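FAQ: What does the model actually see?

It sees only this:
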Amino acid sequence: MAQSEGKVLIVDDDTSLRRSLTGTLEILRFDVGEAGNGEEALVCLRAGQYDTVLLDINMPGVGGIETLARIRRSFTRLPILMLTVRGSEDDKVRALEAGADDYVTKPFQMRELAARIRASIRRYHAPEIPENAAITVGDITLDTMRHRVERAGEAIHLTPLEFEALKVLMSQAGRPVTYARLHTALNLGGDFANRAHLRVLVGQLRKKLGDSSTNPTYILTDGWVGYRFRHP
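And it is asked to produce this:
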């Protein structure tokens, strides 16, 4: 029997969507549980060990954001991927700021969804990295203690602000980092709605990493949400 890819809890009030997702994910070797609302989700999570949660943001009654908050209070590290609708950037940002690890936009490609689920499960089971340990993602290494960044062994010289921005992004590799979160982490001050400073900063980082501004390899732009450092 093939080894399971992990156990996923689908939380959505749409029964037909849950059944469709369950069938497809089981074919892809995931173990799947289902819940029709937030209360059922918490019961399922307390009764069994899950590796990640797919949570619909638009549910009647206790909505997705409130359900997210309740799950986070009891399961602080459990990956939660929000199912959102196209064009709902405000919902995506609210979900990420409330503690979601990632989001997937409906209608979605199953290949993308499965990749996001696998990535979340890998991060969940990866050993925690000490705060001052070097971070390596692909061929980029950021060493906090030595305040040094290398690409494929070659040193890259960054300003202190560029270094901190890269540290925030790499420490969350594979996850979206909202503009507001990055703005706050860097203590930029002023109104984060004015993203010109962040755009310039990320543009400089991409240039120093040898990244393309139109088709970046490392630092991706997540629509109107923020940035994410691509995880291999």
